[in-house]
Amino acid sequence: MLEIKNLHVSIEEKKIIKGLNLSINKGEVHALMGPNGSGKSTLSYVLSGKDKYEIDDGTIEYNEKNLLELDVDERANEGLFLAFQYPMEIPGVQTSFFLKTAINSKRKYLGQSEMDALEFAKLIKSKSEDLNINTEMLKRDLNVNYSGGEKKKQEILQMSMLSPKMAILDETDSGLDIDALRIVSEGVNKLRSKENSFLVITHYQRLLNYIKPDFVHIIADGRIVKSGDYSLALELEEKGYEEISNSA
Amino acid sequence: MAATEQTIKQVNTLGDTDYKYGFSTELDEIRPPKGLNEDIIKFISTQKEEPEWMLDWRLNAFKVFNKLPKPEWAKLNIPEIDYQDCYYYSIPKSLKDKPKSLDEIDPEIIKTYEKLGIPLKEQKMLSGIAVDAVFDSVSVATTYKKQLSDLGIVFCSISEAVKTHPDLVKKYLGSVIPVSDHSFAALNSAVFTDGSFIYIPEGVRCPVELSTYFRINAMNTGQFERTLIIADKDSYVSYLEGCTAPMRDENQLHAANVELVALDNAEIKYSTVQNWYPGDKEGKGGIYNFVTKRGACRGKNSKISWTQVETGSAITWKYPSCILQGDNSKGEFYSVAITNNMQQADTGTKMIHIGKNTSSKIISKGISAGKANNTYRGLVNILSKAKNARNFTQCDSLLIGNKCGAHTVPYIESSNSDSMVEHEATTSKINEDQLFYCQQRGLNSEDAVGLIVNGFCKEVLQHLPMEFAVEAQKLVAISLEGSVG
Ligand SMILES: Nc1ncnc2c1ncn2[C@@H]1O[C@H](COP(=O)(O)OP(=O)(O)O)[C@@H](O)[C@H]1O
Ligand SMILES: [Mg+2]
User: In angstroms, rounded to a whole number, what is the distance separating the alpha carbons of residues A72 and A80?
Assistant: First the structure.
């Protein structure tokens, strides 16, 4: 599904990712944990194709394609989804309209016809209910005056509507209270299948109680310093980043 | 809507320089020689079988035109206009013997309208829009006439009104925009060819959106539209004007005069969607759009609201204005002006507060891309008798790219200490992070720009009649195509 080899990335001459390797197969859930500033968001932006990031070395293969050659929207329409750490506000654009536009962009890319209004209404209703999102909220401008938690739920709503093949969740858990965390995790778990993969970026082991990862990686200073299974997250919780990174 | 989808498709397949409405219809035309003089004016008047008072009015206006200086262009770079190198009248020949019904209209003309997506045929009229179509200089067909006339509403071409409602025309024509106002106003008064006339009688709420579709067809024809709308006491009307012009290398001149009069408790809502040919990427060709639009809130509690979406024309120069004479009267101006490539727009409004407790609201959204220049120029003038007058102005500019410009020039004159004037202005660049976010959700860069810009314009677009809001949103997106690399 996703194969990152020896990735080196810099921004404005500053090296941020320094030889990162990561391989995610179909159906797997990987957790990426690491301290602030270790390059987690940078990796998520590079994967989704944000500009201004310089790829100094390395390759990224996604579904047998060279990911780095695809435009941002091509990657998205090929099934790559990023739940943003800081979702953008788009004033004047109704949330439901945005969702419809996104869905139809993908359908157009895949050569399918637009989703009809009724089908869309049903889909958005059921997905919103799953996430305990009030449909009144969908009439508001996208993310404008949403609380931190509402923004994160909105990201997961978009994800479940677009049902991506490869979803990257960048600190979706931060800013969520315990109920919201449970609801959001259920949303993610619903989407888990043999076909879909996840890269779950988080600071805290807490989220991984709800979304059980197959693998856990620890990133420090732009490199993966340790990989393991779920137990690594527990170990990390106990010892802290410092000790784990040093012992690696 | 079908027309817009077609537009999008066509633009997508042909690239951004192709203007969808850039076809021209092959028609035999009746055309007097080029040039501007008394003979041409007499010719126009004779062709229209006008009464003598109308001809005298025109000839007087021509005298005034010759005496007036040309308007000064602040931010615009306008080539000298050679008035003698223009045709002032052209009508397709088949219209000379006026058609009685749609069946008698030249199928070529009907086809043109079909390409434009105008619902001209009666069976397509179910959408609730009455259309008065202007094809070059003559009003082709006015639909819905019967239903409207049952309510006492007059909706016809101005040429027809000159003959059928001379008292109303004499009373109100030039009463809002005096002939001597400025040179284009005088020129229009001398050579105006056609336009709409609307009279809503006392106590009547017009049940449908009235609409005119203007189309400039013949080469080198200046189009001098004249529209007059009168809303009598306690009446309401909403009017929509839409425009397209074929694509040509030379520039064409459009100098319209639009006058609105609202009496006691009356309301007029006037919406414009203007997508005339803007010229190509290098700035060759395109329409020069110099328009004088002015509304008089003559009665107490009257209201005039202008909503405009300006996406076309090489040069746009227009300031829809409100003269707030009646006590408690209200003026509103909602504007979206988009300039791309080499387009220039200098647009805004004038709110003249004369009566007590008058209020005005101005919301202007300027979007600039390419090497275009976009200026908002607005005047709020509060005269000494206008106790408790209020104005709120908000001007937001959005820049796409580094080579375009946005300018906000507010003039505020207040001779009344009770009055309150608020002005807010912002200028921002299109937000790269918002674009990235949209693209990460699968929108291509052009759709992402279209979406964000439409959001930016929402406050204005929501004032358009429903049927046209969707159309306008698509137009906003189309007109910015090619603006991001
Ligand atoms: N646009 C930028 N310009 C310069 N430095 C940046 C930029 N974006 C991120 N960085 C730096 O890159 C490092 C990694 O940031 P980030 O990927 O956001 O970390 P994380 O998500 O792991 O907290 C940090 O030191 C941050 O300051
Ligand atoms: Mg981060």
Answer: 9
Beta bridge partners of A80: A166
> How far apart, in whole angstroms, are the C-alpha atoms of residue B352 and residue B375?
20
Q: How far apart are the first and last CA of chain B?
A: 28
User: For residue A243, what are the domain limits?
Assistant: 2-247
Q: What is the phi/psi pair of residue B14, to 5°? A: -95, -10
DSSP H or E segment with residue B479: helix B466-479
**In which residue are the tokens 């005339």 written?**
B276
- Cα separation of B27 and B90, whole Å? 11
pLDDT digits (tens, 9 = 90+) for A44-83: 999 999 998 999 999 999 999 999 999 999 999 999 999 9
In total, how many domains does chain A have? 1
Q: For B449, phi and psi rounded to 5 degrees?
A: -60, -45
pLDDT surpasses 90 at B286: no
A162 touches chain B (CB under 8 A): yes
The tokens describing A175, both together, are 């800013």
Of A72, A92, A109, the CB nearest to B456: A92
Contacts with B445 (C-beta within 8 Å, 6 or more apart), sequence order: A73, B435, B439, B484
Quote the pTM value. Answer: 0.81
Q: What distance, in Å, lies between the first and last C-alpha atoms of chain A?
A: 27
Q: Residue B159's closest CA among B304, B45, B13?
A: B45
What is the number of CB-based contacts under 8 A between chain A and chain B?
75
Q: Phi/psi at B145 (nearest 5 deg)?
A: -60, -45
State how far the Cα of A110 lies from the Cα of B387, in Å rounded to an integer.
Answer: 62
CA-to-CA distance for B57 and B293, rounded, in angstroms? 20
Residues in chain A: 248
Q: How many CB atoms lie within 10 A of CB B124?
A: 13
How far is Cα A28 from Cα A86, in angstroms, rounded to an integer? 25
> Who lines ligand 1 at CB under 6 A?
A 11-12, 14, 16, 34, 36-42
Residues 6+ apart with CB under 8 A from A138: A94, A95, A96, A99, A124, A128
B439 touches chain A (CB under 8 A): yes
Q: How far is B315 from chain A (nearest CA, A)?
A: 28
Cα three-residue angle B280-B283-B287, rounded to 5 degrees: 80
Chain segment B419-456, per-residue pLDDT in tens = 999 999 998 888 899 999 999 999 999 899 999 999 99
For tokens 């395109």, the residue is B286
Distance to chain B for A83, nearest Cα, Å: 10
Which residues of chain B have a CB within 8 Å of the CB of A50? Answer: 436
In whole angstroms, give the CA distance from residue B209 to residue B139: 18
Pairing of strands B91-92, B29-30: antiparallel
Query: Chain A residues with CB inside 8 Å of B439's CB?
Result: 49, 71-73, 76
Torsion of CA B197, B475, B106, B166, to 10 degrees: 10
How far apart CA A22 and CA A40 sit, in angstroms, is: 13
DSSP string, B151-211: TT-EEEEHHHHHHH-HHHHHHHTTSSS-TTS-HHHHHHHHH--B-EEEEE-TT-B--SEEE
Interface check for A53 against chain B (CB to CB < 8 A): the answer is no
